[in-house]
Amino acid sequence: MRLVLNVLWFVFGSGFLLGIAYGLAALICFALIVTIPFGVASLRLAGYALWPFGRTVVSRPEAGVVTGVANIVWVVVAGWWLALAHIVAGVAQCVTIIGIPFGIANFKLVPVAFWPLGRHIVELDDVRTYSAATT
């Protein structure tokens, strides 16, 4: 079922367009040299935006104050407009009954787009393994 949802998300949902948006954000971050770590995070999020079903985001407990400050810079550089794109796409998709799962997936991506550093994207099957390894 995840494969079917991901293919539909990529083709009919907003996966392709959001992947391009994250790729553009990565290019901007790579061009600014200082924000290269944000470009890497943006590419990681592009993969998640292209194929979100069957994966989830978990927080890294070892992320500290530097990660929080870096997330504030991310919000200014790219996070606010990527989060806004997810909100607009989610609302537009929730208008139809068929689009509701895609809208929910977009709403799930909003906090990640807004505050990406200090988080890992993991397969749903690996969540317990990841949680046990970090505690």
UniProtKB/TrEMBL annotation:
Listed transmembrane segments: 7-24, 63-81, 87-107
Domain Inner membrane component intervals: 4-55, 69-119
InterPro entries reported for this sequence: Inner_membrane_protein, UCP028777, YccF
Keywords assigned by UniProt, alphabetized: Membrane, Transmembrane, Transmembrane helix
Protein name: Inner membrane component domain-containing protein
Organism from which the protein derives: Asanoa iriomotensis
